[in-house]
Amino acid sequence: MKFKLYKPLALCALLMGLTACHDFEELNTNPYAPVYNPEVIGATPDGIDIDYELSESALQSLQGTENAIGSVFANFTYEGVYNDYQVTTNLTHDFYAAYFANNVSGFVTDSPTYRYRDDWSKKRWEHFYDNRTVEEYSQLIKTFWFCGKDRYHNAFYITRIYYAFLLSMLTDTYGAVPVEYYVKGAMPTDEKVKYMDQKDVYDTIFKLLDQAITKLHNTPATSQYSLGENDKCYAGDKEKWLRFANTLRLRLALRISNVAPEVAQEQGKKALEDPSGLMQSDDDNMKQTPKYSYITGGNENIYTLLYNWSANVVLSKEMEIAYKEQSSILDPRCEILWWRPTALEDLNQNEPKESDKDFNGCENGETALGGSYTTIYSPSRVFIKQDQRKLDRKHWWCYGREITWLGYSESLFLRAEAALRKWSAEDPKDLYKKGIEASFSYYQIGTDKEGQGKIEEYMNNLKGLEAFNGTDREAQLEQIITQKWIAVYPNGNEGWAEFRRTDYPRFMKTPKNGNNSGGEVPNGKFIKRLRYPDSESSNPNRPKEADTQGTRLWWDIADTNNGSGIYQTPNNFQ
Question: Where is the segment annotated Disordered (predicted)?
């Protein structure tokens, strides 16, 4: 890994508002020579605690730029998941979760059909290590620790929670990743960066969450620094951060339930039994609100932007199946999120002229798109002529629409699975139904009589309820995960991870006409991870044998399809 020598970013943030501010020096000499880092004295690779001191000049630098730390935190929580989202996530994770289909000829043989794109993998990798970790996280926790740890107590541990969240998505993308030193805001002592096995990465994440939750329950009497509007997630609300941390902990505990059941149960119960509880409503959602909402010319909602680029993504065939086959009626969420197949020029009138065609999804890898593909497939429901800061439930997507990374409806499905695993005494069926209803509520579907009627009919004829009349936990889990997958849309980070873990929904499809992985993923099987960027190839510690896109991660215990490409009913209760 090529290191970047840190200079005080916070001063740059103060002067430039974190706009195109990357004041670092590349070290392009011997790639495995020890790194000279005069700031940190005595750092070790062990544990998560800050175990080092700063040089006098480094401490003075932190103190001199302390007033700008809020701007650093604002960028940390805004860009955290969203940085270059189209190439780091949308064209990979979102497609591998089957939330969208590729309908642009230039992408048919690209990442959506498993071709490896090093430039895109490199962006995701560098955004995490160079931007989020070295530029922001390191600056934040050093300032909070060395410039007044009592005053910055809450801010320090909130920062650690968010970093644990970002780290969970990185390891669920690649598997083993470098963590030592970085997690405590220090730089490794040489460029032979050690990779941490995914099992140990998860252990580190749980330690971060456990410590942060405990410490936030024991805030010092000292008046606390307020993150306020610089916290783009929860405006510095400690209780919301605690509920998010507990819900994230439960999500990750369930992720490892097939491979480390005892640890999973221990962590899951800690999340469920913490006095702050889990998410209580959509007000607790961990979300990203585009800068367009509050800054003229700021970043827009990516899904709306893709529509504006000639509707570059459309409804997937898997989502179409889910919307049509889970109940006796069409899922009302479909009508909120997607247009019926209609000519783009008709949708872009001052009053959209939607056709009466049936909603139609596209298979990834489809090459016979023909003509205007929006007349064949359903594009995202964007009313491009209206004020794009105006949130309109009838046309869900706009430039100012938030994207939810972990929400209340998901938390109910997490509790349903936890109950199914006997981690609590709650009723899985009841929580399953509440999770669906919470998803409808998020989309404001029941705000009028028509919507209320659709919800009632959908729930009364929900096919998945039958599984809860028996004792087959696998059948019940399938219903929970399938509805959670629908509710989690469009968060491909989570949708793809849960599909790999559970092998649900069972109607997922491999790329039509075969994939373009170069043999890394056998035809008829699903992609399992991204390869490390080629810039890591010179690191002797990189896990070389496991570095293919067909290699399962630690918590992914079985292939979805057999060698003939036929679905295998999984066993998620081993």
Answer: 266-285, 531-550
